[in-house]
Design goal:
This protein is an alpha+beta fold. Helix content is about 35%, strand content about 15%. Strands 1-2-3 form a three-stranded mixed β-sheet. Strand 2 and strand 3 form a beta hairpin. The longest helix has 11 residues.
């Protein structure tokens, strides 16, 4: 009985040699969002994947659109908070 190992990869495989010879072309593809599996002697040894770009600022209008709401009414927001938050101070060791 023979056992075969089959690897299914969505991203294309590139050899270490291809990476060395075509580095500019491959890195340009990575910059555009393409990922690659790197192989050496036919064995997968790593992945070359694009970095996630983190935004430090999201405009308020874009945030509200993604949150599924148009505008936040400050008074309504405060009323909602008051309805669920208990402002009373309780002594946990008292009566």
């Amino acid at each position: 009985m023979r056992c075969y190992r089959v690897t299914m990869s969505v991203q294309p495989e590139i050899s270490q040699r291809d990476l060395r010879l075509r580095s500019k072309e491959i890195m340009d593809s990575v910059e555009r969002g393409q990922a690659f599996t790197v192989t050496r002697d036919g064995h997968q040894i790593g992945e070359l994947i694009p970095l996630r770009r983190r935004r430090t600022f999201v405009p308020r209008s874009e945030f509200l659109t993604s949150a599924g709401t148009g505008a936040v009414n400050p008074q309504t927001f405060r009323d909602d908070l008051d309805a669920v938050i208990d402002d009373d101070v309780h002594d946990p060791y008292g009566d």
